[in-house]
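Narrative summary of target 7.
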Amino acid sequence: MEVFKFFDAYAIRARLFPAIIGAAPALAALTLLISWKTFGLSNMIASLGMLVLLWAIADFARARGRAIESALYADYGGMPSITMFRRSDSTIDSGSKDRYRVFLAGKLGVVAPSAADEAADQAAADSFYDQCGNWLRQNTRDTKKFPILFAENVTYGFRRNLLGVKALALALNVFVVAICVLLLWAMSWNFGAPMGNKTAVVLIVAAAHATYMLLAVSRTAVRDASKAYGRELVLSCESFLASGNTPAKKPAGKKVATKTSTAATPPGAP
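Modeled conformation, tokenized:
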């Protein structure tokens, strides 16, 4: 489809696919309830309508996904790429994290917080870990070199954006079902008629869609994907260490800023 040319690999999988799933009943209705035997004005309008609908829902899903991200992080104690660096977190072994801290401190030109520093001021330590996450995101953008990390980021973005569009998708589902019920009522519930068969198919799609959205799209699913991406991001330090990248000499006495860095992050990256 020509529309795919406007999206990169991440946008297709993490933004467009949630939009397609969110609009599935409406797309089914437009496809089945409109005659495509001849391509007339109604078909042109329907085709344009589908493209615009997908574009609008994809944009809405991204915006809503990012809006709920902060609330999701607050629910489970912070951004995973920060919390997993903490000494109190056992997701990654302490020995590996010690090596990563030394490496990233050298790259950032700061002194990594010691165990005592972290115990005394967790916020300052988290500021350092936030900077570490930003450095890693900026230096792991090569999807061919970091395919697993990219895949985890796509999964997280997909689930987050789908959760963001969940309410809209269910509302659209209800609207489509109402239209189909009115059509069947007008046909005296004649499922044997061609239009009745098509309407029944749309209702089946709507039922399957609602079931999926209610059962599979959840904050828990987003949290799992976020943690998987955060873990892979931290572990990407191994690639830099294995390739011979050594940290720069640590400057004496330079402390980590206490405020959280505001550097931009890639789309969907926790």
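The chain has twelve helices and no strands.
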